[in-house]
Design a protein that fits this description.
The protein is mostly helical. 53% of the residues lie in helices and 9% in strands. The radius of gyration is 23 Å and the shape is elongated.
């Protein structure tokens, strides 16, 4: 569920982790192994949580790195959605490009498919979900095509 105007993860970090433990920015930065400036930028909403910082926070505060990254994604996505009307995408051009890319990809996969123990056929379906189901039925993502067992 999308949150309306989610807080920056830096605000959450300050309110739920640093303040209850009476940690200063300097002490927290030293413990996390980052500069005071880097942590301050996150706490003040000028910088986002990177995957590495998410891991550091998860270790320090016994949380999951995913929770920190999810907060950052929700924050970034909410702000990007505010500009949705200004974003223009030429979908017809993308469909033509997808068909051309799929055709080249199918040509490059043909030797692999023929050499495998499982015969595969391909069909181009721009705009649809695509995956390659191999012998053990595990999906491998392949852009712009769908390969089916023969």
């Amino acid at each position: 569920m999308k949150m309306h105007n989610p807080p920056h993860p830096g605000e959450v970090l300050r309110a739920l982790c640093l303040e209850p433990m009476n940690l200063t920015v300097t002490d927290a930065a030293r413990s996390l192994g980052v500069s005071r400036k880097a942590l301050s930028s996150i706490l003040n909403g000028r910088a986002g949580i990177s995957p590495e910082m998410a891991i550091r926070l998860s270790i320090a505060f016994h949380t999951s790195a995913e929770s920190w990254l999810n907060q950052q994604v929700q924050y970034d996505l909410w702000h990007a959605e505010k500009n949705r009307k200004r974003i223009h995408v030429a979908t017809r051009s993308l469909d033509r490009l997808a068909k051309a890319t799929a055709s080249r990809l199918v040509d490059s996969l043909a030797p692999i498919a023929l050499a495998s123990a499982h015969l595969l056929t391909a069909r181009v379906q721009p705009g649809r979900a695509r995956c390659w189901r191999y012998g053990n039925d595990q999906p491998l993502l392949v852009p712009c095509i769908q390969l089916k067992a023969a």
